[in-house]
Prior knowledge:
The chain is α/β, with parallel strands linked by helices and 215 residues long. The protein has two domains: 6-17 and 90-212, Rossmann fold; 19-87. It contains ten helices and six strands; from the N terminus they run E-H-H-H-H-H-E-H-E-H-H-E-H-E-E-H. It has helices spanning 18-37, 41-52, 65-71, 78-85, 95-105, 116-123, 136-140, 147-157, 171-180, 203-212, and strands at 6-9, 107-112, 132-135, 164-168, 184-188, 199-200. The protein has a six-stranded parallel β-sheet with strand order 3-2-1-4-5-6, with helices on both faces. The chain is elongated. The chain starts with 5 loop residues before the first strand and ends with a helix. Magnesium ion binds at residues 10, 12-14, 168-170.
Amino acid sequence: MHNAEAVSLDVTGTLVDGRSVKYFWDVLIPSAYARKHRVPFEKAFSNVKQMYGTISPDDVRWYLPEYWMKKLGIEESIEELLRELKPLITIFPDVKPVIAELSSNHSLIVSSNLPMLLLETVLDDFKKYFLKVFSSVSTYSLPRKTAEFYVKVCSDAGFKPREILHVGDNFIYDFLIPRFVGIKSLIIKRFKLPRRKHEVSNLKQVLDRIKLGDL
Length: 215
Ligand SMILES: [Mg+2]
């Protein structure tokens, strides 16, 4: 019988549909670029994509909207773009009831590699359920959720690794690396059937596993 005092959740692909986050980078930023430079969207899209390619995803700047807006000469405020993004964010339907129930007897934390500006827009009404929100890029200047990230999260959230269950959709960054530092972890497969013991298809199943101590 194993249990968890704290539950750490990934965001993109776990709480929200990744396509709505992708829209920010692939549509809203190029649209703002098109308005600024007075070029058609297609031209803006190809210029912006080409610019994205000039920086490595190992560089923390790659993840920061404010960096790209400045680099692309976009003068609109980030708040305006985030306002446009807000209605497009698709939260998976099981999130609200499960988060509300889980938060009544567990500490909830967010462990994401989205920058804090996007995290705050995406979480919005849900933020009140979380004890702490950790962004690898904004909180620790780490481009990915490495072992160093999870060790810092444990220490800053005030839990031992074995007291935390982390749930996310990426095999390496949400499953293997947390386990490597001693955090229990489950993989959420939103669009595929779970096949292995460490896989679930929604947050309700996470709740059931916690209740049964089956972690
Ligand atoms: Mg994810």
